[in-house]
Amino acid sequence: MSKSKQVLVTGGAGYIGSHTVVSLVNANYKPIILDDFSNSNPQVIEGIQDILQESITYYRGDCRDWDLVSSIFNEHQFDGVIHFAASKAVGESVEQPLRYYGNNLDSLMVMLRAVEQFKVPNLVFSSSCTVYGQPDHLPVTEETERKPAASPYGNTKKISEDIIFDVVGSAANLKAVSLRYFNPIGAHPSAKIGELPLGTPNNLIPFVTQTAAGIRDVLTVFGDDYNTPDGTCIRDYIHVMDLSDAHVRSLTYLEEQSESSYYEVFNLGTGKGTSVMEVIKSFQEVAGVPLNYRVGPRRSGDIEQIFASVKKAEKALNWKALKTMKQALADTWKWQQAISKIP
Ligand code: NAD
Ligand code: UFG
């Protein structure tokens, strides 16, 4: 058997990173994790190892630490880097912009310096559909104009995309993609890894499952007076396992590009919009438990509706989201029960 290609996965103990590590190993890559556990914990590594039944190499540290990063690049000959590590809470970014610009941009810069210096050919970057703001036309394609960012977090994604574009354009030998995720949900079907929100969740699905598990009293639906069929906001929810597979496909895709410098962006979603009320209804069906919810006022900064055109990723990456919303909700519920130890 040919030797596995080594891939550095920054933020590999996080929600999307941990699932991607599983997908990478299943595709015969050798992922090496670098994570400072600022928004995750080392038990996640145990969960990954439990699923894979093999040990995973990981480094605990900050990807802004050049001495650490260069020692890791000296130790391993990487074929690629998947750069997940970032701070991701939108509200927090408004309160602590310097922390967000500092972490998200500095960690990217260190990674770019490392891939250049150590001649690593491929980079996959975690971007977000937040770069589109509220689009004028739906679904959004990769050509849809990016709007001024609504938060420092969103701005870090926009600026990061521009930085990567410039670095690739400077004739560096680097092939890169920015993946614009829509709304990742779900967990590994084994329920050994999943999303671990710290404190009160901001996102809909963890709030739904925590409410159903009795950890929260009531889910507030943020507004039902939007211009959508049932008045609640619409998003494109994608199963994290589908998203993880897209990272593996992206790496393979980059390896296949014959040019030495290359840059592309891809939307990663399902192409289907689902409203908050539809999520609640599906969850109750899947979990077989009633959900205590009430309709409250709109949340400031929310966009009314967004969903992806995924034609570009389907064609170029030969990838498609395969799992349904119900599968994602069932997997999240199983995960919630595993972590809250509900019989
Ligand atoms: P996460 O917080 O679960 O994972 C990020 C991981 O990076 C964590 O384990 C954290 O400890 C680590 N980390 C953060 N800063 C670090 C640093 N300087 N050095 C080393 N490790 C560091 O987040 P996630 O949901 O898995 O998101 C992964 C990426 O995808 C992020 O870049 C995020 O902005 C992006 N993204 C996420 C979503 C989403 O809804 N989850 C949507 C769009 C884009
Ligand atoms: N919602 C509720 N009640 C809640 C939580 C959310 O009704 O308790 C609603 C929101 O108003 C929104 C929908 O559920 O209409 C989805 O909200 P999320 O917070 O789960 O997701 P967002 O689309 O607002 O934000 C997510 C990520 C951001 C990222 C953005 C675009 O959390 O980091 O997608 O990528 F910037």
Q: What's the structural blueprint in terms of helices and strands?
A:
Blueprint: E1 5-10, H1 15-26, E2 29-35, H2 43-52, E3 57-60, H3 66-75, E4 78-83, H4 90-95, H5 97-117, E5 122-128, H6 152-169, E6 175-181, E7 183-185, H7 204-212, E8 219-222, E9 234-235, E10 237-239, H8 240-256, E11 262-268, E12 274-275, H9 276-287, E13 293-296, H10 311-317, H11 325-340
Parallel strand pairs: 1-2, 1-4, 2-3, 4-5, 5-6, 6-11, 7-10, 8-13
Antiparallel strand pairs: 9-12
Bound molecules: nicotinamide-adenine-dinucleotide and uridine-5'-diphosphate-4-deoxy-4-fluoro-alpha-D-galactose.
Nicotinamide-adenine-dinucleotide (NAD) binds at residues 10-11, 13-17, 34-40, 62-64, 84-88, 103, 107, 126, 128, 181, 183-184.
Describe what this molecule looks like in 3D.
Helix 1 crosses helix 8 and helix 9 packs across helix 11 (325-340). The chain has a 7-stranded parallel sheet, with helices on both faces. Strands 7-10 form a two-stranded parallel sheet. A two-stranded parallel sheet has the order 8-13. The radius of gyration is 19 Å and the shape is globular. It contains 11 helices and 13 strands. It has 343 residues and is an alpha/beta fold. Helix content is 40%, strand content 18%. Helix 1 (15-26) links the parallel strand 1 and strand 2 (29-35). Uridine-5'-diphosphate-4-deoxy-4-fluoro-alpha-D-galactose is lined by residues 88, 90, 128-130, 154, 183, 202-204, 207, 219-222, 233, 235, 276, 299, 302.
